[in-house]
Amino acid sequence: MLFRAKQKYGLEVLNYIVTSNHTHLASCLIYIDMNMVRTGVVSHPSEWRWSGYNEIQNPKKRYTIFNYSRLMELLGFESLDVLKEVHGQWIEDSLKKGKLAREKRWSRSIAVGSREYIENIQTKLGVKVIHCKIHETQGSFELREDQIPYTVAFGTENEKLRRINTYELGSF
């Protein structure tokens, strides 16, 4: 998650959410907007009051989350109306296609983009990401730590402890 990356690596979330090109950025926006739909809390991102979807579709004049002009520039849109229309269509397409699966690249990665972009981020972060590796997935690259399951380290060794540490009801 982006928040986890900020806590662990001292990153400023909004600086690193921007990916190497508009395709990655658009995919990231859609993925974040679909989070509450994915969890089953709402059936459409518009139902989640605090969503980025609502921030784009119903922009506030004050206290905004997005820098709309920069977002439009990065995505290649000329106006806020075009951004709203296309963004709304992206969400509707995702809902129709049932794109609700969790994607590791957005929930585990520090950065997503081209190899050159990822290497640049890795260089800038230096020792903070010394244990992170670059992974190629579906034509893009990700900077992330490898995940090791706990069960590897704690397999059958603990089986003997279970019987020792188990009490029947009323045996205390």
What's a quick, concise take on this entry?
By secondary structure, the protein is mainly alpha-helical.
Order of helices and strands: HHHHHHHHEHEEH
Helix content: 40-55%
Number of strands: 3
End-to-end distance, in Å?
Answer: 43 Å
Q: Unreliable stretches, pLDDT < 50, 5 or more residues?
A: 1-7, 9-19
Percent of sequence in beta strands: 5-15%
Adjacency order of strands in the biggest sheet: 1-3-2
| Global geometry | globular
Number of helices: 10
Output mean pLDDT: 78
Biggest sheet record: 3 strands, antiparallel
User: Based on helices, strands and strand pairing, what is the structural class?
Assistant: mainly alpha
Compute the gyration radius: what is it? 21 Å
Describe it for me?
The structure is a single chain. The chain is mainly alpha-helical and 172 residues long. It has 10 helices and 3 strands; from the N terminus they run H-H-H-H-H-H-H-H-E-H-E-E-H. A 3-stranded antiparallel β-sheet has the order 1-3-2, covered by helices on one side. The chain is globular and about 40 Å long.
Keywords for this structure?
single chain, 172 residues, mainly alpha, three-stranded antiparallel β-sheet, globular
Task: Describe the secondary-structure layout.
Layout: H1 2-9, H2 13-17, H3 22-33, H4 35-38, H5 52-57, H6 68-75, H7 80-97, H8 104-107, E1 111-113, H9 115-125, E2 132-137, E3 140-145, H10 159-164
